[in-house]
Design goal:
The structure holds two protein chains of two kinds. Chain A has helices at 41-49, 91-101, 106-119, 135-147, 165-182, 193-199, 217-222, 227-232, and strands at residues 3-12, 15-25, 30-34, 56-61, 64-65, 76-79, 153-157, 185-190, 202-207, 210-215, 239-242, 253-257, 262-265, 274-282, 287-293, 298-303, 314-319, 322-326, 332-336. By secondary structure, chain A is an alpha+beta fold. Chain B has 13 helices and no strands. Chain B is globular. The chains are: A alpha+beta, B mainly alpha. At the A-B interface, strand 6 and helix 2 of A face helix 9 and helix 10 of B.
């Protein structure tokens, strides 16, 4: 099942949450909608679910216009950010609630509920209530509630945001595995770029209600469509310097260099820009040097772990690969360097 | 060094003045509390303790109180008016509590969602609660008047029978309950706040599963509100057993034929009309015991319910 937004606008009073969104989610893919808080990504998900109506534009599933269809007629299942488990029902009742409401034959529904619970490893907790579960178990119950429906489309709204870092890594991998096994179209919303890069078949970057770029994680990272995407993805983000500055370039451009493409040398060669180390961040597997050039430009460079450089050292800089964006429109112009 | 010492001194001064201020604050707090504390002591605690003592005497309110053991309790067992009074109170509570709860919660659920002018409807529901009991009772004497009362005029206009209300057993009982359906503001507010605190995502998850509003009410709203509803029921039971005195006294004075002779009215009659302070003290203890038993039963149910978030 593919999902298509055609010219979708959504406003809440004077706030424009989405502006003329055109986006297609391909059949069977896992598309990650990523962007900072309030960029409209959850709104997009709610529009697919039918929990919101667009102010203008249409939403299609395959070729059928579902814009005016009630939520339960769309055959989608959603995992909410706060998981939205029914606190007064046991795990089993939570998962069985949908089939019961849809008056599915009891025997078939029960065996599907049991199968889903054991598939996700929560059959041992079937008779417990949500407040008796760990964060990871609760997240699985929410997933089970979606899976038991066997929907055409899965919608996930930051379902891992309440988990601690370790658990989140594991849950991330499990969701990708499940998606591969089930093969249903999935739209996954997150503000966490690492989650987006590792999970998505494709990533759609939304900022301030506008879609800036859609592509594979590698495409979006290596060829950002504009300065907004370049500045959003990557940690630390891309160094963006007005053209004609320390990174060179034409005056009407912005030159971008990823921290891993900026190399430092103990001695500055002739004609090479130089910068003073202001902070060394040791992250274990790598170090990040925060640098300050003579003209005040701040840069970040990624280096191997156990960097020999200390704050105050003056280092030479060389650029392996840079990106050029228009100064006025912020759009990508070409690769350079 | 000198700066450090002077800073320390300043800190000590500040600490001292705060302590002083707190001390005087305590005193003024007590001063504000005193009138209420004294009134509670004199008007509630002392009479309550005296009630325990008088319950086992033949005190008439005049002269001295002679100890008479369990005579009052024995008299109570054979007292047909007590039986009638107990019956009237039981019917009153059994009908009025669920009805009042139904109206309060129903209105709360209807008015919980934000809508144009919703604030005014909510104010309208709460307003009768701030009207004094006496004013409301006098108003209902007019509302329930069988000849020129507006209620019967409306009933007559739409072709329904016009009962004589306060002149018949069930008419009087219904009239009192009808009046008590208006001062429900507190339960309404509690139910409104509870409904609004329920997670909206639960309803969206249910909507995705095809849950109709009626099913949402049955499977989500009511179960999640149940502990609060039970507590409201407990509170209303205690309230209606004990505080239905003013409206019933003014509307019906226990009549017709003891139909609305609720326990508080019978207790009042015994004490102040028949000067049976000793006997009415025993009746009061029985009312207290009944109230405690009913509340204990309801709390047992609440405790068995899962305490939710």
């Amino acid at each position: 099942m593919s999902v298509r937004f055609v010219g979708v606008d959504k406003s809440y009073g004077p706030v424009r949450a989405l502006q003329s969104l055109d986006l297609e989610v391909y059949d069977g893919e896992l598309l990650v909608l990523v962007g900072p808080s309030g960029c409209g990504k959850s709104t997009s998900l709610r529009l697919i679910a039918g929990l919101e109506q667009p102010t203008s534009g249409r939403v299609y599933v395959d070729d059928a216009d579902v814009t005016d269809l009630r939520p339960h007629r769309r055959d989608v299942a959603m995992v909410f950010q706060d998981l939205a488990l029914y606190p007064h029902m046991t795990v089993r009742d939570n998962v069985a609630f949908g089939p019961r409401i849809r008056r599915e034959p009891a025997e078939a529904a029960r065996s599907r509920v049991d199968r889903t619970l054991s598939q996700l490893g929560i059959d041992g907790a079937a008779d417990r209530y949500p407040d008796q579960l760990s964060g990871g178990q609760r997240q699985r119950v929410a997933l089970a509630r979606a899976m038991v429906r066997e929907p055409r489309i899965y919608l996930m709204d930051e379902p891992l945001s309440d988990l601690d870092a370790q658990l989140r890594l594991r849950a991330r991998a499990e969701i990708v595995e499940l998606h591969r096994a089930i093969g249903a179209t999935t739209v996954y919303v997150t503000h966490d770029q690492a989650e987006a890069m590792t999970m998505g078949d494709r990533i759609a970057v939304l900022v301030d209600g506008r879609l800036h770029q859609v592509g594979t994680p590698a495409q979006v990272y290596d060829e950002p469509a504009d300065v907004t995407v370049a500045g959003f993805l990557g940690s630390p983000p891309m160094n963006l310097v007005p053209g004609g500055g320390v990174l060179g370039g034409e005056p009407d451009t912005i030159v971008g260099v990823r921290p891993e493409d900026l190399h430092v040398h103990a001695e500055a060669a002739a004609g090479q820009p130089a910068a003073r180390v202001s902070v060394v961040e040791s992250l274990g597997s790598e170090s990040v040097l925060l640098l300050r050039c003579d003209d005040g430009t701040r840069l970040a460079a990624r280096t191997p772990p156990r960097s020999p450089h200390l704050p105050g050292d003056v280092l030479g800089l060389s650029v392996e690969r840079s990106h050029v964006f228009g100064h006025d429109d912020g759009l990508r112009r070409e690769d350079w360097g | 060094m000198r700066e450090v010492v002077s800073t320390l001194r300043q800190a000590q001064d500040i600490a001292r003045s705060t302590t002083r201020r707190r001390g005087s604050g305590d005193r003024s707090a007590w001063a504000f509390l005193a009138p209420y504390a004294i009134a509670t002591l004199l008007l509630v605690l002392v009479p309550a303790l005296l009630t325990f003592r008088y319950a086992f005497t033949d005190f008439t309110g005049l002269g001295s109180a002679g100890f008479n053991g369990l005579d009052n309790l024995r008299r109570l067992v054979d007292d047909p008016f007590f039986a009638a009074s107990l019956r009237a109170s039981a019917i009153h509570v059994a009908v009025a509590v669920p009805l009042r709860l139904f109206v309060a919660v129903g209105l709360a659920l209807l008015l919980a969602a934000p809508r144009r002018g919703g604030r005014w409807y909510r104010v309208a529901v709460y307003l009768p609660t701030v009207v004094p009991d006496i004013a409301l009772a006098l108003l209902f004497l007019w509302v329930l008047n069988p000849i020129y009362g507006p209620l019967n005029q409306v009933l007559g206009a739409v072709g329904l029978p016009q009962p004589t209300w306060l002149a018949t057993t069930w008419g009087a009982r219904s009239g009192v309950i009808l009046m008590l359906l208006f001062p429900i503001g507190e339960a309404f507010l509690v139910a409104l706040a509870t409904r609004r605190s329920l997670n909206a995502r639960l309803y969206e998850a249910a909507a995705l599963d095809g849950c109709s509003p009626r099913m949402q009410l049955r499977h989500i709203t009511l179960p999640l509100m149940a502990p609060v509803l039970l507590l409201l029921a407990v509170r209303d039971t205690a309230l209606l057993l004990q505080v239905s005195f003013v409206p019933a006294y003014l509307l019906t004075d226990g009549g017709p034929g003891n139909a609305t002779l609720y326990l508080p009215i019978y207790i009042y009659d015994q004490a102040f009309e028949f000067l049976g302070f000793g006997y009415s003290a025993m009746l009061t203890l029985v009312l207290l015991a009944i109230t405690l038993v009913v509340i204990a039963l309801q709390l047992l149910v609440v405790r068995r319910w899962r305490i939710l978030q």
